Amino acid sequence: MNRSTYLPKQDMIKRKWHLINADGEILGRLAVKIAELLRGKNKVFYTNHIDCGDFVVVTNASKIALTGKKLDQKTYFTYSGYPGGAKLTPYSVLMTTKPEKALIAAVKGMLPKNKLANKQITRLRVFKNDKHKHNAQIVARGKNG
Predict the structure, then answer these.
(1) In the chain, N or C: fewer CB atoms in 10 Å?
(2) Nearest to 28 by CA among 97, 86, 98, 91
């Protein structure tokens, strides 16, 4: 019995541009959708060790919703590597100053922890409001998302 597996070549992979409006979306549920698009899980020839994901542009990140008491209780943690270099930022502060960072952190946590994820996260563009500079790519490829 001949069993062969089809693996797409890198030059055969066509990357689409997806525009997602985050107005009123829940942070975690939106991050799952974005992570699936970045990994390419929506494609027929998805393979976990091949980078076949798409580009994702997210607008209105400042209007993302958090459920429950997460706005008051959840914190964003960064560490510089030096003693005493830990910083805890509450999400209430983070969502008012840098909501893009909150969404990127949520998506990054849903990607695999390997070198492939570093390539995939670079195709994510997050904007605080509805103005972005990727109109040409999205109009040329068609509005998806």
Answers:
(1) N
(2) 91
Nearest to 57 by CA among 92, 16, 24, 26: 16
Q: Specify if 108 maps to a domain.
A: yes
Q: Is residue 128 part of a domain?
A: yes
- Total tally of structural domains belonging to the chain: 1
Question: Buried b vs exposed e over 122-139: b needs ≥16 C-beta within 10 Å?
Answer: ebbbbbbeeeeeeeeebe
R_g of the chain, CA atoms, integer Å: 17
Cα 141 to Cα 60: distance, rounded to the nearest angstrom:
21
Bridge partner list, 88 = 77
Q: Is the pLDDT of residue 143 over 60?
A: no
What are 49-107's pLDDT values in tens digits?
A: 889 999 999 999 999 999 999 999 999 999 999 999 999 999 999 999 999 999 999 99
Long-range contacts of 88-91 (CB under 8 A, 24+ apart): 91/66
Q: Encoding tokens for residue 139?
A: 């109009």
> Domain holding 41: CATH number?
3.90.1180.10
Q: How many Å apart are CA 27 and CA 30, to the nearest integer?
A: 5
